[in-house]
Amino acid sequence: MNDDLLTTQAQAYLLRDLPTRSAQTYRIALNQAPDSLEARAGLAQASLAKRDFALSQEIYQQVSQGFEDDNSITQFVDNYRYEQLPYFTTDASGGRGNGTLSDYDWQIDSQLYSSPINQNWRLFAHQFTGQGKTEEGTAKRIRNGAGVDFRATEWLGSMEINRSNGNAAKTGLAAQVSYLPSDHWQFDLGYDNSSNELAWKAYDSGISAKQTSAALRYQTDSTASAELAYQNQRLSDGNLSQIWQASTTKLLWTHPRQQLDGTLALSTSSNSLPDAEYFSPERDYSAGVTLLHQWTPWQSARRHFTQRTYLTAGEYQQRHFGSSLFAELRFEHQWALSSHSEFIYGIGLNSHRYDESRENRTLFYLSLTLPLGSTL
Q1: What is the pLDDT of residues 142-194, one digit of tens each?
Q2: SS3 for 80?
Q3: Which CATH number fits the domain that encloses residue 35?
Q4: pTM (predicted TM-score)
Q5: Which distant-in-sequence residues (6+ apart) come within 8 Å of 71 by Cβ?
Q6: Cβ neighbours of residue 47 under 8 Å, at least 6 residues apart?
Q7: Are residues 302 and 261 in the same domain?
Q8: 3-class state of residue 255 by DSSP
Q9: Facing residues of 219 across strands?
Q10: Where in the numbering of this chain does the PgaA membrane beta barrel domain appear (predicted)?
Q11: Is 339 within the bounds of a domain?
Q12: 136 and 155 belong to one structural domain
């Protein structure tokens, strides 16, 4: 196969979220055509995608000057320089219901990352603020933390020390590690001894939780994946809450600027304290299907605007309360301001039965990722 075909194939692998295979193909192309700037820039882009920062730095030092007229080189140089910047992320969400979970609630979860240290490390600050109003009162939770983040070809990890306030105030430790042996497999483990994921009625009662999670994910490429996940929470009131989940996602249809994905999700959960003050089913089961339609009406270079519509429907069964249907509709916009910054916002409607009451909720959410500083 000639080097042009190899380069085209390598680009396709990278677009399909197969950076290791892409890098291998680019290396073959470079062996056949050592002077190919396109293949060299492609190898550098693939190395960034697979977090091989030593290789990307080596190529950057070779091509950062003198190749300003080559588009593939200038794109890589721009991406590499963005990777050296500190950046900020925030996720905000909230909703209003009819009191089963909360009358209303909102939360903002933000992280500020430093520039890379020795290529693979970053320091970060983490801030969570949330509030939920229930029939018992209004609970507010604030958690501030700081930690270190590690990223390498096969490993991702983070560790954080934090302090929360309120009735369940405590000093906590959160850690996450992921192992990625190939483009296809990912193994995740997590621990948090001051979880931010409890019901607002639990926080209002001064309850805290130690949370452990594990997940196994397999993808053929960006068009098909499957995941198994487990999580348990050991709450301070003595409850052991456990969740098992399985899901699979597949690209169903594609067209220029449009695509349709389908997800099948199954889950079951249990609680050792079913008469708790918050929603705590002794045992439940859930099966649902989600269709996601994406449409990109505008795209220019590395900027684009994408509109997404999510439609979810399924059946929920709770021990002692029988079966019921649940549904959710979400409408979302994504603005990719560059290849490294984006703004997402969405609204939705959700209907789900909990115990004997049906909760009808309106919801909103937004997410922002923003590099800080200039690449010049």
Answers
A1: 999 999 999 999 999 999 999 998 777 899 999 999 999 999 999 999 999 99
A2: helix
A3: 1.25.40.10
A4: 0.95
A5: none
A6: 19, 23, 53, 55, 56, 59
A7: yes
A8: strand
A9: 225
A10: 104-369
A11: yes
A12: yes
